[in-house]
Amino acid sequence: MLPAARALPPRLPRRPPPAWRWAAAGPPAAGLRALGTGRARRSEALAGAPLDTAAKEYSPKVRQLVRDIAGLTLLEVADLNALLKETLKIPDVGVMPAAASLLPAQAAPQEEEEEVPLKKEKTHFTVRLTELNPADKVKLIKEVKNFVPGVNLVQAKKLVESLPQEIKANASKEEAEKIKAALEAAGGTVVLE
């Protein structure tokens, strides 16, 4: 048999704040929000506030311009962009427009640098092991295991025995040179591509 349920005490209604809080200082000023505002007061305050959700009226000329731009292809938008920059004399801005406006004196040297053709330096390399010294095969297998992630000794041995093999792709210049130096010290011939 189930035990008898205990009755919970009834919930007391919420009391308004006591008037004694205001007795010394008087009621709160009009600019301050009263802590115990009811729904009626809140809805009155909200009803008088201006709403930003009202639809803004645009002129027919602006509406037609928006329709025309929305109907352009990407090539036409690019041409429009270039023509607007030329007409309004808007300079091409780099990645950080705030820095360009802060340092106008450095704008002239940058233009001179742009005239000189820059030789692009390769930043990512592929490390390829092409040959090995048979006497140093064990050391080379251990080094390959260190530089190829997720490879155990058996897989590293198979990789070294089936040369030429790619050891690491998309390695930074520093990382590729580090791998090359370690593998060559272990008795392998390495090519950076």
Please explain how this structure is put together.
With 193 residues, this protein is of the alpha+beta class. The chain has helices at residues 20-23, 39-48, 60-70, 74-87, 97-102, 107-115, 137-147, 153-161, 173-185, and strands at 124-132, 165-172, 188-192. The chain has a 3-stranded antiparallel beta sheet with strand order 2-1-3. The longest helix has 14 residues, at 74-87.
Please write out the topology.
Layout: H1 20-23, H2 39-48, H3 60-70, H4 74-87, H5 97-102, H6 107-115, E1 124-132, H7 137-147, H8 153-161, E2 165-172, H9 173-185, E3 188-192
Antiparallel strand pairs: 1-2, 1-3
Helix pairs in contact: 7-8
Summarize the structure.
The protein has 193 residues and is of the alpha+beta class. The chain has helices at 20-23, 39-48, 60-70, 74-87, 97-102, 107-115, 137-147, 153-161, 173-185, and strands at residues 124-132, 165-172, 188-192.
Q: What does the overall shape look like?
A: flat
Span between termini:
84 Å
Q: List the total number of helices.
A: 9
H/E series, N to C?
Answer: HHHHHHEHHEHE
The whole-angstrom Rg is: 38 Å
Q: Name the beta content range.
A: 5-15%
